[in-house]
Amino acid sequence: VRSYRSDACDVRCDQSIFPLHKFPRKSLDLSSLCIGMWRFTRATLRERTTSIHSNRVVKSLCSTTKGKRFQHDDALAVQLDYYMSPQFAGVASALVNNSYGSKGLDISFLPTCPVGTEQANVRRHQDANPGGTTVGTVEQNIFVPTLAADPSLKTTAVAAMFAQSPLCIASLKDPVAGSLKIGAHEDTVELMKRIFPSHEVVASPRSSKNTDLTSGELGAIQAYTTTEVPALRRLLGHDPVVTPLEGLGGAKLGYGQVVFAADECLLEGDKRAVVQAFCEATFEGWALAIRHPEQAAEMVKEAKQMLGLDDESNDHWYPSAEFEVEMLQKCNEHVKGTFEGDRYGVINAERWSVANDWLLKGRSPSKNFGLDPHVWQPPKK
Asked: Taking every annotated instance into account, which residue ranges of this chain make up the domain SsuA/THI5-like (predicted)?
C-alpha cells in the first residue's frame, strides 16, 4: 500500500460508501486507514479559488439555502447511475475543486450499482442512515416507470443534467431495412420493445456491447450519442447507423441524468438545503466544464482516481484524450438545454409531465408525478 500526499484530501474507510473527510496536508499511509481500500489521491490541477477548509456556511445563489449551517453528522451520499466519466463532468469539477466541501457538504459516493436499481439503493441507504441525505441520478425514462411500479421507493426528482436523453440504437445497417436483434440494458428492454415492436429485443451486458455489435452477435445495440457512437466511429473508421429514440414513433423520454432524492430529504429544513447546495455545486461545476472542456476532462480523470468507482472494464471507450474531450463536449450540449434564469439543471414541469404521459401511457398518477418543481428553480422575476 502506497503513501499519498493529500491536498485537503477526504478519506473514510467504509465497506459501502467512500466519504470525503478533511485531512491536513501531509503524507498519508493508506494501510493505516484501511487495507484494500479504494485508492484515493488528489493532485492540484490549478490554484484553488476556495478555501480548503469547510466553513459550514452555504453561500448560495438560491435564497432558500443562503446562510444555512449543516450539522457535522448530516452527511450527503450520492448514487450515480454510471461510474465516474465525462457524463458527470459537473460532479467531477465540483469534487476536484472542493466545491461541495466549501458549501458545507460532507459528501460520499455509493458504489456503482446494477442498472435500474438506483432508486432502490437510495431508498435503502436513506432508511439505514436517516440522519443523512441521499441523492441519486438516473434517466427520466427509468425513474418515472420505476417509481410508478413501486411507490414505496419514495424518491422525487429535483433537477436534471441533460435536457434530453442521448439514448439511441447504433447498428451497422439501417434498422428500417429489416428486422434486427437489438441488445438493450436490462432496465430498458421494455422501452425498446415498445419503440421497436417489429424487432427482437434482448437483454445484453453493457460491458461488451460494442464487441457484440461488431462481431455480429447483435444487429443493433442500445447506445448513447455521447459515448458509444464516437467510440464506434473511431473503431470502425466511419459512423455507425444511429437512430435517436427521442421522437421516434412519438416517443418522449424526457430528461437525462435526473437528480433525485429520498422524499424525506425534501421537507423544509437542513436536508432540503443540503440537496439544493449539492445542485448548486454540481451545476457550477457544469458551467466550468462548458467553459473549459479540456480542463474538465482532466478533472474527470482526477475524480476517477479519487473515487475509484468500478469501471466494469467495458469496451465502449476509446483510449484517447480526444475521445474524452469529444464525449464531454457532447454532454455539455445536453446540459446547455437545462439553462433557465441564472442556472443550469432546471426541469420544466410541463415538459416533465408530457414525458410522463408517454412513459406511463397516459396513466400518470398525478400532475408533476415524481417531481418537486420548487427545489431547484431560478428566482422569480
From this structure: 206-296
In a domain, 16, yes or no: yes
Query: Which residues 6+ apart lie within 8 Å of 271 measured at CB?
Result: 74, 133, 264, 265
Residues 207 and 290 in one domain: no
Nearest alpha carbon to residue 51 among 108, 6, 7: 7
Give the Cα separation of 119 and 116 in Å (integer).
8
Q: Is residue 27 part of a domain?
A: no
* R_g (Cα) of the chain, nearest Å: 21
pLDDT in tens, 220-267: 999 999 999 999 999 999 999 999 999 999 999 999 999 999 999 999
Q: What's the whole-number mean pLDDT along residues 315-322?
A: 85
Backbone angles phi, psi at 121, to 5 degrees: -65, -40
133 closest CA partner among 303, 309, 308, 273:
273
Q: How many domains are contained in the chain? A: 2
Residues 160 and 265 occupy one common structural domain:
yes
Contact 161, 259 (CB under 8 A): yes
- Element counts in the chain: helices (H) and strands (E): 11, 13
Number of neighbouring beta carbons within 10 Å of residue 312: 13
* Per-residue DSSP letter, 316: S
Mean pLDDT check: name the lowest of 83-87, 88-92, 190-194.
83-87
Residue type, 188: T
Query: Rounded to whole angstroms, how far apart are CA atoms 49 and 295?
Result: 15
